[in-house]
Write a structure and sequence with these properties.
91 residues, alpha+beta, single chain, 3 strands
């Protein structure tokens, strides 16, 4: 028998303007994204002149996209404030 868990989302309330918005579970907490083959604290050889095009380039681009989407959920859509409270919503 397959047990299906209810979906989880977080509801954020802006402390400045009171606006409420929903955030998918995967974006509710800051995540440290790892890149295969890169040791923590190392610097990647990236620049405008010679962008890194090694095997981890796709992972780097994916991590940047995820970071941008996550950052969008951390900002109030009404007043652009980053001061909010959040709580888990089951449905």
């Amino acid at each position: 028998m397959h047990l299906r868990w209810p979906l989880q989302e977080y509801k954020r309330t802006c402390r400045d303007c009171g606006h409420i918005w929903r955030v998918p579970r995967q974006f509710a907490h800051k995540q440290m994204l790892s890149i295969p083959g890169v040791v923590g604290g190392s610097r990647l050889p990236m620049s405008d002149i010679n962008p890194y095009a090694g095997p981890a380039a796709g992972d780097i681009n994916a991590s940047l996209r995820i970071g941008q989407e996550s950052d969008a959920y951390r900002t109030c859509p009404e007043c652009r404030s980053r001061h909010y409270s959040q709580h888990l919503v089951w449905f």
